[in-house]
UniProtKB/TrEMBL annotation:
The keyword Membrane applies. InterPro entries: Glcn_transporter. This is Gluconate transporter. The gene is gntP_1. It holds the Pfam family GntP_permease. It comes from the Bacteria. It comes from Staphylococcus arlettae.
Length: 151
């Protein structure tokens, strides 16, 4: 029975550690006032805060390889944009969520799950899983921007 618990906790502990690390990173971002700094920089631009949220999340996803970490960290960065630009918070969450699924690479657990489940090469995983994530992310951003027109 203990070995059964042990095998179950191994997988769960990794997920908890990743989410916890993302939350800690988000807190560092908040304490450093990075979100407020980006909000101040954006006041002079014509870029939609929703596109900026998607882009920031996507860049963090590319840098870390983890969707959860990128979403949590980006939430700390783009949170101050909501009152500054009077953005619908639901759309900001959706823009951040779609940005967190932009690109996959070898640091991403879902990359390896997909590769191993379908028993395909790393190259084919990039071609299939990577392209799927990129297309769903861009489609999600387009839907968010369309919703922004009507909400």
């Amino acid at each position: 029975m203990m070995s059964s618990f042990e095998s179950g906790l191994k997988g769960l502990s990794t997920i908890i550690f990743i989410v916890g690390a993302g939350g800690a990173f988000k807190e560092i971002i908040l304490k450093a006032h990075v979100g407020e700094y980006i909000a101040n920089l954006m006041t002079d631009t014509n870029i939609s805060p929703l596109i900026m949220a998607w882009l920031i999340t996507a860049l963090i996803r590319i840098a870390t390889g983890q969707g959860v970490v990128s979403a949590i960290t980006a939430a700390g960065i783009v949170g101050p944009l909501i009152p500054t630009f009077n953005v619908n918070p639901v759309l900001m969450v959706l823009a951040t969520a779609t940005g967190s699924n932009t690109i996959t690479h070898v640091n991403d657990a879902s990359f390896w799950l997909f590769k191993e489940y379908f028993n395909i090469s790393i190259k084919d995983t990039f071609k299939t899983w990577g392209l799927t994530l990129l297309l769903t992310s861009i489609t999600g951003l387009i839907v968010v921007l369309i919703l922004d027109i009507f909400i």
